[in-house]
Design a protein that fits this description.
CATH superfamily of the largest domain: Type I PLP-dependent aspartate aminotransferase-like (Major domain)
Structural class: alpha/beta
Low-confidence stretches: none
Helix content: 40-55%
Strand content: 5-15%
Shape: globular
Distance between the termini: 53 Å
Amino acid sequence: MVQLSKGASSIYGEAAFEVLAKAQALERQGKSIFHFEIGEPDMETPENIANAGIRAIQEKKTHYVPSIGLLELRKAVQDEVEKTRDYRPDLKQIVITPGLKPGIFFSMLSIVNPRDEVIYQDPGYPTYGSVTSFLGAKSILVPLLEENEFRMNPDDIKERITEKTKLIVVNSPQNPTGSVMTKSELEDIAGLAEEHDLYVVSDEIYSKMTYDTKHYTPTGRDEAKERTVLLDGFSKYYAMTGWRLGYMVVPCKMADRLQNFLVSAVSCTAAFTQWAGVEALTGDQSFIPEMMARFKEKRDRIVKGLNSIPGFTCLSPKGAFYAFPNITGTDMTSQECADHLLYKAGVAVLPGTAFGPYGEGYLRFSYATILENIDAAVKRIRESFE
């Protein structure tokens, strides 16, 4: 029998979509489910951004564009990086992608060889491990510990660097824990990469989504010109998940390769989506602080609620829109507890192990929902254990 490739069998998906499918199946049976599994803002794309996309379609901007992205959007990204990261990249460093995930995939494809070692956070976003596996490289996990507020410790990275290490992947603000790394921690990681001649890929998709703390990047040390890669996008803080739009700031030698990857894989990112992106970066920004004020209220409500449930304890996240409660007091595994909540309480969440083995003992709640749903879900969970 003809077999699929080793790469095809080694790549894997995300538990969020699997749990969503289970929850929707229960809803079709007439059961009421509260959804806390999908990491997506519960707001709609701001009207000025949506209208820019509509206008682009009406103006027949629906044809091929340069694979690395529209010049207008790349210039807007150049200004955005200067404003938010304190350095101005060259235009030739900027690459537009159809969402941030291709940025993760293509940057790792550019850097990692079979049998290389890739260091990343655990619990962490599943795509890092999936792509590492696909490339035939070895995952080196750095545990995120509750006593360190789930921040990645540079000393733990240093202990894991070997002659086979090629890449460190950083995600701050972080999915699934909501942790935000400090400026000094990120500078130390950039220093380790320089000392050991490594690459750093920094996933900053939640960069504008912090509470009472500032976002920092490890890419400032070399301004993404030599060994660091900045990844960001429009999905989260502009509520544009379905538009599929992201950007990369990379060393010029990598940008040349990325252009060929994009040509071969997707040709280009949709033109009208990119025009919406121009409006997102250059238009009215009041949507973001308004959204984050609502998220802060939701964060405080769910953290208080989860801490009121026997067997649960929950730190207050400093970024993104995820709560990551410790459920070891329930005497259940993460998967057992997630199943209990889905089938007994009608609350869809993700087990911490969906993000790696060090997620055992935790659950992830995406609190991008209305306050009434948070209160009702907490009540159901509490009653399910009674």
